[in-house]
Amino acid sequence: MPNLPTNQEKNKAIRARNRSLYAWSFLKMQNSGIHIREKLTLFWHNHFVSVNTNPHREYYYINTIRQNALGNFKELVKQITIDPNMLLYLIGAQNKDSAPNENYSRELLELFTIGKGAAVGNGDYTNYTEDDVVQMAKVLTGWRVRGLNNVDALTPFFSNFNHTKGDKTLSHRFSNAIISENGEDEYKDLIDRIFEQDECSRFIMRQLYIWFVNSEITDDIETNIIVPLATIIRNNNYDIVPALKVLFASDHFFESTFCMIKSPIDLMFSVTQSLLVDLPNSTIKEKYDYALLLYLAATDLNQSIFHHPDVAGWKAYYQEPLFYKSWINSYLLPKRLDFCRILVTGGDLVIDSRKYNIPPLVPVLKIASEIPNATDPNILINTLAEEMFNYAITAEQVSALKEILIPGLPDFEWTVEYSDYLADPTNTALAFSVDKKLRDVIAVMVQMSEFQIM
């Protein structure tokens, strides 16, 4: 009889697979250039929070989100409702006729589809009542997840024996609608009924607006931006892409002057994408080690994928009045700046008291070579600023950055040195000197406030 793995060996294997999943997720983002699909995958991951420690279920959960990221909101809710990861996280797998559990039905309403709204009376909110939570929990009874040793481990199943039979009557908030007995399809009927409420489209549009544009939704924005876009979502049966296309092409989107502080993940990909950082071009292990380091750095900066602080997600997207300012404080800001600098200059990145030695990853000579007339330090710095920032910098800032590039020297000193390098790039001493000067100035630029905001 073969020796079965010990619990310690199983746990070690699970931890290794978790690390692979986290690294793979960052590789997907890196390789996509932060394509809109990956931005929305991260959005839905934060919207449908489902924390688990099993890499198999986490993979299928995030894959479901990624495949539907540009799809239909209502259909995604249906898939997430019976996703094994979610069934276990919000105890839906223990929801049965003899002991209904309201965890998922409550979050389905409050966080996932319609929002609570202001309290109107005892147990009565603008968009639903406490009795709706109870009745919907009964609709959702009977769904289960098998153990991992079973061939169907990653497939949910419906137990009619554990399902509450009979009709379930919703409150006046849903026009006293009746959800009739319908076995394993009953949850779909419930979700269809929830999505008949116009507020569902407004609710999700607000969440998308906070994610992409601004945390402050004024009465004017609600009336002139949210409501029309929500109407587009409703008219397209909850496909979200048509509304997003209108938003992203609007004057409002491009004229928004709000300074959104970059999330840790946005920040690190701002460095890697705008400054041409390439993945290690060697073994799969080295690529995964690099991506895992990005995951660890983001986690250290309070944005850990698959490990949200609570079911409401990352505080930057819901906690008033701070919102995005949650990413910045006296503890986190030095860490953010250090991460940006080290990717440019190289050095020891400290995460949880452990040092990771990072080589200089930004190809500064390549970046400069793609800037026309980079022999002029003013053109060089202004072009770098245009590529790295969404905001113009002042003449005083240009002068300050030149002091880092060529401290105390006139402009022509850079012109001569860089021209000499271009004429003889194999000159080791020249290449080292030019590389260091460029690295020094870019290292300062990635720490400027203009780089820390969208």
Instruction: Specify the number of helices.
Output: 21
Strand order of the largest sheet: 1-2
Content of β-strand:
5-15%
Shape: elongated
Average pLDDT number: 93
Task: State the end-to-end distance.
Answer: 60 Å
Number of strands: 8
How would you sum up the major sheet? Answer: 2 strands, antiparallel
Residue ranges: pLDDT <50 for 5 or more in a row? none
Helix content percent band: 40-55%
C-alpha-based Rg, rounded: 26 Å
**How do the SSEs run, as a string of H and E?**
HHHHHHEEHEEEEHHHHHHHHEEHHHHHH
Task: Report the structural category.
Answer: mainly alpha
Describe this structure in words.
There is one protein chain. By secondary structure, this protein is mainly alpha-helical. Helix content is 54%, strand content 6%. The protein is built from 21 helices and 8 strands. The strands form 4 sheets. A two-stranded antiparallel sheet has the order 1-2. A two-stranded antiparallel sheet has the order 3-4. A hairpin with an 8-residue loop joins strand 5 and strand 6. Helix 10 crosses helix 11 and helix 18 runs antiparallel to helix 20 (428-445). It starts with 6 loop residues before the first helix and ends with a helix.
